[in-house]
Amino acid sequence: MNMLIIENEPFIRLGAFLGIFFGMALAELVAPRRRLLTSKASRWFANIGIVAINTVLVRLLFPVAAVGMAVIAAQRSWGLFNNVAVPYWMAVVLSVVILDFVIYLQHVLFHATPIFWRLHMMHHADMDFDFTTGSRFHPIEIVLSMLIKMASVVLIGAPAVSVIIFEVLLNATSMFNHANVRLPLGIDRVLRLFVVTPDMHRVHHSVFPFETNSNFGFNLPWWDRLMGTYRDQPRLGHEGMTIGLNQFRDPSRLTLLGILALPFVGKTGNYPINRRGVSDEDS
């Protein structure tokens, strides 16, 4: 059964992606949270174009990818769970949780280090917030993220099935928590105890740096609460908040080519966590 899942990993991931893609697109039409301010056609062309570029790039540079590294690590007895006797199901569950924490730490790192923030700015420069924003990452950031993920898989000794589960969940929740979907407040309040919701993550896309540097989780919401980076609501409310970055407010600059060039020509602003001389009140 496990080998069947591993052999069909590309089809599983593609099927999950398409299912969530069309599901979120429909949900945004039925129950939108905010009115979009910029051209959806232009944004979607750029955002989906980035997905296509990143997919081809990863397949070319990483033929075995993270799942392949898990198989190699198991064959060579590398990593924690390949050397410590624990039930298989426990190794799978713990691997998914640990990998999610690694992604949380990676996200914080990309906000804390100006050179990495330059890459991550592409994601935050989107002036609207919908499920396509969840896949909008610069190709260089995707390559670095894949290297971090592969190294983590080897160190953990994560079972290959857990890597597939993690990547499907991460992709699905990234689209879900970036969706422009209105959830009843009661449901959101309960749901965000178990998964990052759109209202929780939208705070992270505020133009205010002290809100941008909060709610880093993509899948599990616990890390922000445990690490002190959780912010319940945006200061101006979800309808009143401004999405994006202060230094990028011209939609004509945010074309596919424009956002690919953005890390090399754009300014970092006051967003890096370790910036000096800027308080939250100044942001």
TrEMBL record:
In terms of domain of life, where is this protein from? Answer: Bacteria
Q: Per the UniProt record, which residue ranges are transmembrane? A: 12-32, 44-74, 86-112, 146-170
A GO MF annotation of the entry reads: oxidoreductase activity
Q: Which InterPro entries does the UniProt record give?
A: Fatty_acid_hydroxylase (IPR006694), Sterol_Desaturase_Related (IPR050307)
What UniProt keywords are attached to this protein's entry? Membrane, Transmembrane, Transmembrane helix
Fatty acid hydroxylase domain span: 93-229
* Record's subcellular location: Membrane
Question: Which example biological process does GO assign this protein?
Answer: lipid biosynthetic process
Q: What would be one Gene Ontology cellular-component term for the protein?
A: membrane
Record's protein name: Sterol desaturase
Q: What lineage does the source organism belong to?
A: Bacteria, Pseudomonadati, Thermodesulfobacteriota, Desulfomonilia, Desulfomonilales
